[in-house]
Design brief:
Strand order of the largest sheet: 4-3-2-1-11-12
Helix content: 10-25%
Number of helices: 8
Order of helices and strands: EHEHHEHEEEHEHHEEEEEEEH
Distance between the termini: 37 Å
Shape: globular
Structural class: alpha/beta
Amino acid sequence: MLAVVGDCHGHLQLALCVLARWQQELGQAFEAVFLCGDVGTFTADEQLDSTTRRHGKTNPCELEFLTQWSAEPPAPWLSLIFAPENEGGLGLGCPVLMVTGNHEGFAYLQQLVPPGFPAAPVAPEQLPAVDRPGHVRLLPSGWKTVTGSGRVVAGVGGIERGQRRADYHPLAYVADDAVAHLLESGPINVLVTHQGPTEVQGEHGSPTLQLLLDAGLARVWFHGHSTPQPEPALAGPNGSTLVVPLGDVAFPGRGPHADEPGEDGWALLGASAEKVAPPFLREFRRNRWTRTPDGLLIAPPLAQAFRAHSPRALPF
């Protein structure tokens, strides 16, 4: 079974700890996790865009990759997300793969992507590592990978050029050559993109990505970004592709639901695709998180695991 998550906007702990908890609820380990972009992979303050910087003032999770994942050394509790349960971890041992959104540390990510497109799907462990230990890996635009059960998954990051006033890095836009490569290389099982196609999302969708839907490239397509049409829909030639739009999972940071995780950004793919909110999301409200003396936030099950694993390491 695959798990797919919508826009994280820095909330990697939230996304991954929820998925680890979900494995326990389902009694089944995931074979892979896919993130639909806007992961918030900033590694230096100067990479922050104005939107992320603004949201980060009220919600420190927006800056989590910068302050915890790319720190030297990384925050010590993060490794426990991936450690086996019998070793005191949360047990999310599967590959975690992301496509790029339009809110990323592009100056950093551009160093990770080799030129060209591999002729065959690349094993998850051979994809470029995004964090230092390699827990999260990048599926570059136009590349394919293959999961343990043999599903071929392709990714395309970014948004359609010209739809936003902001002047983003080139990697923030849908790459024409990546789309052309996928059109030439034949059908796949799953497509993961940041933006959706126009047939489903209208003016909020990408005309360039629509070419992939017109070709019936994938059986199932997951995307994030803007989702005015949030319900899964059969689209493309003779309804051959199930398109599953996913919303943000991040805390809004303000307003009456400021501390509540987004419910619309979660999906599972087993024998069929299902967009469904984990039934235990209340356990992950932000007011339940542990705050360190220097203002870092730790997800509830991760703080508990770290206290048990390293009781002398936490000064709180």
